[in-house]
Amino acid sequence: MISTPQQSTANQTDLDRLEALLVDLEQEHHKLLELAGLQREAISRADAKGISEIVESTAATLGRIASIEQERRKAIKQSDGTIPTVDQIIQDADEHHARTLTNRSRSLRKLMAQLKEEHEAVRVASLALTNHMNGLMEQVSAKLSHSGTYGRRGAVDPGRNQVVSSLDTMR
Fold first, then answer.
1. Are 18 and 75 in contact (CB under 8 A)?
2. 71-130 pLDDT per residue, tens
3. Whole-angstrom Cα distance, residue 108 to residue 166?
4. Which residues pair with 156 in a beta bridge?
């Protein structure tokens, strides 16, 4: 537990632990950023197997991040149960820890902003691929429908006004 104004040896150990956890978080977020780029590339190639592998790796990385974050929260939890922000901890830290924690915190925030942008690009690429695949399915369905009247979902295509074939039900 990190205490306030008076720095003890235990507190220095806690600050060292916090710094190590922030390093671990930074490394995992770098991996996540790399995976997001790979996912975008796999989507642009419509590589289903590659996308699947990347999604599995991303899930594992997110699991590690959650575990590290849980350790971080445990390491900085105050005796009254509150969890201070890194900025609050820096206010009471010695100069060395304040500087390194500030740098780590900034770096992590920057990575998270980059991740947000990259995930938006992945979302847009996924949507484009989905729309492309839907268009292909409609074209295939139209070719397989002998009259061309019915769309992919079995409904009459509003673009068609007449049925090209018929069935005589009279004897």
1. yes
2. 999 988 888 989 988 888 888 889 999 999 999 999 999 999 999 999 998 888 888 888
3. 66
4. 150
| Per-residue model confidence (pLDDT) at position 4 | 46
Sign of the CA dihedral 143, 146, 148, 150? negative
Place of tokens 């979902």: 153
Q: What Rg do the C-alpha atoms of the chain give, in angstroms?
A: 28
Tokens, residue 121: 């690009």
Cα distances (angstroms) measured from residue 165 to each of 145, 149, 168: 11, 10, 10
Q: What is the pLDDT of residues 49-62, one digit of tens each?
A: 999 999 999 999 99
Q: Give the angle subtended at the CA of 61 by the CAs of 59 and 62, to the nearest 5°.
A: 65
Domains of the chain (ranges plus CATH)? 9-119 (1.20.58)
**What one-character DSSP code corresponds to residue 156?**
B
The single-letter code of the amino acid at 8 is S
Tokens found for residue 128: 């484009």
**CB-CB contact of 14 with 96 (8 Å):** no
